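ARCHIVE CARD
CATEGORY: sequence design from structure
SOURCE FIELD: tokenized fold
FIELD CONTENT:
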């Protein structure tokens, strides 16, 4: 199983494309990975999701794209910045997530905000 960390993917989409291709056993050159990644930067993804807000667009009648799973608020106001959960989740929500998924989070390199919380 391949786990892609958002923090790494968002910093270097082309490298993540290469990693996914390698995991799948698909040869991809550096240039090909860059070309693929170029179509999926935050700005282009935001433009794709904006179509759901245009009342003249058929897409505005659909809540999400079944192919890409993009939806109208897929790209937040923070434009996908890493760590924004700290500004939006309450401490109770963070504690719940870290209690339930703390083991997985730490095994994948994420530090818990409250080190006394342990996953189950």
């Amino acid at each position: 199983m391949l786990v892609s960390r958002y923090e790494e993917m968002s910093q270097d989409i082309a490298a993540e494309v290469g990693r996914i291709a390698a995991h799948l056993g698909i040869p991809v050159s550096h240039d090909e990975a860059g070309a693929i990644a170029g179509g999926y930067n935050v700005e282009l993804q935001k433009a794709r999701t904006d179509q759901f807000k245009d009342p003249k667009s058929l897409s505005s009648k659909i809540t999400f794209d079944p192919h890409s799973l993009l939806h109208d608020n897929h790209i937040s106001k923070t434009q996908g910045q890493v760590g924004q959960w700290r500004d939006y989740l309450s401490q109770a929500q963070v504690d719940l997530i870290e209690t339930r998924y703390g083991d997985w989070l730490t095994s994948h390199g994420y530090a818990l905000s409250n080190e006394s919380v342990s996953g189950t």
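CARD ANNOTATION: Confidence is low (pLDDT under 50) at residues 116-120. The CA atoms of residues 5 and 109 lie 9 Å apart.
SHELF: design records, drawer C
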